[in-house]
Design goal:
By secondary structure, the chain is an alpha+beta fold. It contains 33 helices and 27 strands. Strands 10, 11, 12, 15, 16, 17, 18, 19, 20 and 21 form a ten-stranded mixed sheet that branches. An eight-stranded mixed sheet has the order 8-27-26-25-9-22-24-23, sandwiched between helices. The longest helix has about 40 residues. It starts with 9 loop residues before the first helix and ends with a helix. It is a multi-pass membrane protein.
Length: about 900
């Protein structure tokens, strides 16, 4: 019989699943993972290695080539000519080798992409062995205790046993647009999925509140697992660049087939053997069409994305890779991104006195040092402030090998402050039981919790931005007494806030009140008639690496904009310390943003570098104004309400540590370390990936055009074919293989972050590249034809051997040429890619084997060539360097 967990009491559910509030043990988790498997939906079957190999033969041209090989074998049986069998065998062998090379490239790319998807796997907060942990959601098992809060994506189906004001958006599962309000009590009657209010379902979103729940179903056993076919139907995402290159490949394919037909017809009309011309024409088409392009693009993307992941930037959406290289503005949150996110309270203001607080980080060792002696009343209200700091708080202070925080770092700093003042978090939480909470939101900029002490008294504790909190207060503790909050007292409090902000401190205000029993637990009732207690100023030092990252942005033509919830003066002080802009720092706050129109904002965004006291709605306005001004914007965010801005941004960047699941889902990139410098590294890597794709596109196209010109012109003017079918295919194998892949992993150019951002509308194969393709292709084709014509008197086999070697050497020099369309081949950049040097060396050794190894000589119809021939070959093939270097020098 199926257990319906929603119909059971929470304690019975825990017992049935062998769970307890302190969580499973590590040993039990391992056993359950073996039994139930990982918590993931089964995806549509991935392409197998055999399928990847078979796919290498799907090309129409390959099948024509194989058909021609079969025809050659058939003719060989009729004529008894061993040459027919040998030609067929060699061509077939090259086709197979080429297939293995293509298989290796695609298989490697597939595996790399799978590894990247694992890096982007969602996380889950659990309790195990009595400790709160953040794990990959795939590691969840039935019986695990999960912790959910606003913005989290539910990682598995679970039964709630403890909750607070919990609302879940279940639209993805039930289609119901209004979030479902949850309960912890059992439901006695049979109800459908949407009405099982004490359950949370995998894939749904927490829109409000928090809860603890015990997992009862994972993976395919979840409600989402039962409709997994919908997920399996999703197609893999391709980037716009891949679409464009595929279109270029198709266009070239059609062109090459036309040229190959012309070559075949002209050769046949001149009396060449028909089968020989079929093989040559098809081989030319196979060699000329850059079929390796998609695989090399995928490998380049995979390698680049892996490098980004190692640098803590996990790319969730492939098109982001292209956009990163075009980024002109980075709008970054301050806390934790530009700063260390290691908040430490340095000052407390109570009554009319400043108290300095010693210590740093999350170690609760420190002292309170008042600048003036505290009276009895000051001490009493300092106690209220510390209670508010620790009770109106969802963070937790822990110690393993060192002190650390589970939760928000700002809240963590307040727990540490209270501990320094002698207020133990767990002891206070037991003394004052939380009975209600009004959550912090970016719009309200404050939070309140309601508590009942052991005698039944009810207290409200609040914290938030001083100006917002003061708006909810009717009284204030000032100069030793609680007084009615007058405009003068409010002004004094705000002046003190500004003074602390001017010392680069982030300032929070605290308030409390005693609430009458039976009062309505509404936001309005809870957050009214509050008594303002005082202020706490904390510092979050800038990250050391951010200074260089901002400097690098300036050299790369990228504007850095800071967006923060801090006070305007604090924001300006931090921006000045970071040297965010060269001259005067212009700051705009939320109130000022509200007063200007969208049209005025479009003008203003050009000069503003810091936005303070902003809400998520302001973020969207700033973003839209920047985009209308033609900027390509990377925008950071971590909260639920940041999702609209992250979606609208050209590059949405979510925080991996502090970010909610909703923010991560809306983003293109997730920062595993929440670090601004990591965004800059990702931009640099995005530029490098795009550069490398351009490099091998230029290399493949120019080399292939060189081959086409060689054969086509020779056919037009009536010369013997400079290369036969097997030689054409071998050149293609050498050049489209290892060197092209090695270009895909080329290190970033030394000047890559000294260039202006790339125009996003620029075509990957622009006019300049077509010019380069034509110039290099013409140099290769004409040079090979000249040396072939010059050597013809020595015999066709010798001339073909020399032409074959020349074309290969041309392409070996060309691979170094195409590493940069700007920098000289003789720059320091040339020596930085050991894979390229190795691939060129292997290609040259294989060339020597074909020219000098007797069994291969017979197969490829080559003869040994002497030193004088090599002198001509090197001299002629070097011309491609001279031509392209001259173009670079003249900046044509």
């Amino acid at each position: 019989m199926t257990v319906e967990y929603y119909q059971l009491d929470a304690k019975i559910v825990l017992s049935t699943l062998g769970a307890k509030p302190t969580g499973l043990s590590s040993t039990e988790v391992k056993a359950r993972l073996q039994k139930f498997g990982p918590n993931r939906l089964e995806k549509k079957k991935r392409i197998t290695p055999l399928q990847i190999f078979i796919n290498q033969f799907k090309s129409f041209l390959i099948w024509i080539l194989i058909a021609a090989v079969a025809l050659s074998v058939a003719i060989g049986f009729i004529t008894k000519d061993p040459e027919d069998f040998l030609d067929a065998a060699v061509i077939f062998a090259i086709v197979i080798i080429n297939a293995f090379l293509g298989f290796f490239q695609e298989y490697k790319a597939e595996k790399a992409m799978e590894a990247l998807q694992k890096l982007a796997a969602p996380k889950a907060k659990v309790i195990r062995d009595g400790k709160k942990l953040l794990i990959n959601s795939e590691e969840l098992v039935p019986g695990d205790i999960i912790l959910l809060e606003t913005g989290d994506r539910v990682p598995a189906d679970a039964r709630i046993f403890d909750l607070f004001n919990l609302h879940i958006d279940e639209a993805a599962l039930t289609g119901e647009s209004i979030p479902s309000k949850k309960i912890a009590e059992k439901i006695t009657k049979d109800v459908s999925v949407p009405d099982r209010k004490n359950l949370v379902y995998s894939g749904t979103i927490v829109t409000q509140g928090k809860c603890s729940a015990v997992v009862f179903a994972t993976g395919m056993n979840t409600e989402f697992g039962k409709i997994a076919a919908l997920v399996q139907a999703e197609e893999e995402e391709e980037t716009p660049l891949q679409h464009k290159l595929a279109a270029v490949g198709r266009t070239l394919g059609v062109g090459m087939i036309v040229i190959s037909i012309i070559v075949f017809v002209l050769g046949a009309l001149r009396g060449q053997e028909v089968l020989h011309m079929i093989l040559t024409a098809v081989s030319l088409a196979v060699a000329a069409v850059p079929e390796g392009l998609p695989a090399v693009v995928t490998i380049t993307l995979a390698i680049g994305l892996t490098a980004m992941a190692r640098a803590n930037a996990v790319v969730r959406k492939l098109p982001a890779v292209e956009t990163l290289g075009s980024t002109t503005v980075i709008c970054s949150d301050k806390t934790g991104t530009l700063t260390k996110n290691e908040m430490t309270v340095r000052e407390v203001f109570i009554g009319d006195k400043i108290i300095n607080v010693t210590g740093s980080g999350y170690d609760p060792t420190g002292e309170f040092k008042p600048q003036k002696p505290l009276n009895v009343s000051d001490k009493k209200y300092l106690e209220f402030l510390l209670r508010s700091a620790v009770l109106c708080n969802n963070a937790e202070l822990n110690k393993d090998t060192k002190w650390n925080i589970f939760g928000d770092p700002t809240e963590g700093a307040l727990v540490v402050l209270a501990e320094k003042g002698g207020h133990n978090q767990k002891k206070l939480q037991n003394e004052f039981k939380r009975i209600h909470e009004v959550e912090f939101t970016s719009e309200r900029k404050m939070m309140s919790t309601v508590h009942k002490d052991k005698t039944g008294n009810i207290f409200v504790f609040s914290k938030g931005a001083p100006e917002n909190l003061l708006g909810r207060c009717s009284f204030a503790y000032d100069n030793g007494k609680v007084k009615r909050l007058t405009p003068q007292i409010k002004k004094a409090m705000l002046e003190e806030t500004r003074a602390m902000a001017g010392r680069a401190l982030r300032v929070l205000g605290f308030a409390y009140k005693e609430m009458r029993a039976g009062a309505k637990m509404s936001e309005k009732e809870i957050e009214s008639e509050l008594i303002f207690i005082g202020l706490a100023g904390m510092i979050d030092p800038p990250r050391e690496e951010v200074f260089d990252a901002i400097k690098l942005c300036k050299s790369a033509g990228i504007r850095s904009i800071m967006i923060t919830g801090d006070h305007k003066i604090t924001a300006a002080a931090i921006a000045k310390e970071l040297n965010l802009v060269g001259g005067e720092i212009k700051v705009l706050d939320g109130e000022e943003l509200d007063k200007i129109s969208d049209k005025e904002l479009e003008e203003t965004v050009r000069s503003v570098s810091v936005y303070a006291r902003v809400s998520p709605i302001h973020k969207v306005r700033i973003l839209e104004a920047l985009k209308k001004d033609g900027e390509i914007v990377a925008m950071t965010g971590d909260g639920v309400n940041d999702a609209p801005a992250l979606k609208k941004a050209n590059i949405g960047v979510a925080m991996g540590i502090t970010g909610t699941d909703v923010a991560k889902e809306a983003s293109d990139v997730v920062l595993e370390d929440d670090n601004f410098a990591t965004i800059v590294k990702a931009v640099e890597q995005g530029r490098a990936i795009y550069d490398n794709i351009r490099k091998f596109v230029l290399y493949l196209l120019s080399s292939n055009v060189g081959e086409i010109i060689t054969i086509f012109i020779a056919t037009l003017i009536g010369l013997p074919l400079p290369l036969i079918a097997v030689q054409i295919l071998w050149v293609n194998l050498l050049t489209d293989g290892l060197p092209a892949v090695a270009l895909g992993v080329d290190p970033a150019a030394l000047d890559i972050m000294r260039r202006k951002p790339r125009d996003p509308n620029e075509k990957v194969i622009n006019k300049q590249m077509w010019l380069n393709v034509a110039l290099i292709g013409a140099t290769l084709g004409i040079g090979t034809l000249m040396i072939f014509y010059r050597t013809l008197p020595e015999g066709v086999e010798t001339a073909r051997s020399v032409a074959f070697a020349t074309l290969v050497m041309f392409q070996m020099f060309n691979v170094y040429n195409t590493r940069s369309e700007r920098q000289s081949i003789f720059s320091a950049q040339t020596l930085r890619n050991r894979y390229l040097h190795l691939s060129v060396l292997v290609s040259i050794l294989l060339l020597f084997a074909v020219i000098y190894y007797q069994p291969l000589q017979k197969a490829f119809e080559t003869v040994a060539i002497d030193f004088a021939h090599w002198a001509y070959i090197i001299l002629v093939s070097l011309s491609v360097v001279v031509v392209f270097e001259t173009k670079k020098l003249l900046k044509l």
